[in-house]
Amino acid sequence: SLSDSPVTLKILQNWVPRVSHYFDKEHYTYVGHRIVIQESIEHFGAVVWPGALALSQYLESNQEQFNLKDKKVLEIGAGTGLVSIVACILGAYVTATDLPEVLENLSYNISRNTQDTNMHKPEVRKLVWGEGLNEDFPVSTYRYDFILATDVVYHHAALDPLLATMAYFCKPGTVLLWANKFRFSTDYEFLEKVCSIFNTTILAEFPESNVKLLKATVREN
């Protein structure tokens, strides 16, 4: 239930002073690794949003509760790839997905930050919410322990396909971790829909950033 009291957290200033003088690179440190993210101003999905910082920080701090080592992790709407990179550093088999126009920058960031040989090699794939799920990710082959999503809900029309995508991948035993900055009434309406189809708990709130982090699991009949 949502009544369990979530922990109140602050997004830490985890990024370090930038060494490069280019406006498009941000430097972060998570799990003892320096992560350099190239942002792109052309696409929504190519900027690091606060939900990604919140979930990265939470995964780093709660490794016993959410142990990603050798787990299969799917990130939907991976954007710049920060969360997928952190999951990879934590030992997961990561599949990072997003729209075709975001994949080049996403692939660049992920390969650049995970070249360490002791990590499972992450995969980057196209995923348009609600489209071709059965063809591209047949249930018989693709099963995930964790679905990660950050700032996937903002002012856009794709909320029903997003919900359908979450429902498609969230099988019994799968944990969906969704962090989002809540800005509009549509964000809360989407939250209500998530609560209506999943068992949902708010794990953490970051009041200064208006970010909530939720855990959802499928309702078993």
TrEMBL record:
Methyltransferase recorded as keyword: yes
GO terms of biological process kind: methylation
Keywords: Methyltransferase, S-adenosyl-L-methionine, Transferase
Pfam families xrefs: Methyltransf_16
Keyword Signal listed: no
Molecular-function GO terms, alphabetical: methyltransferase activity
Protein name: MT21C methyltransferase
Organism: Chionis minor
Lineage, top ranks: Eukaryota, Metazoa, Chordata, Craniata, Vertebrata
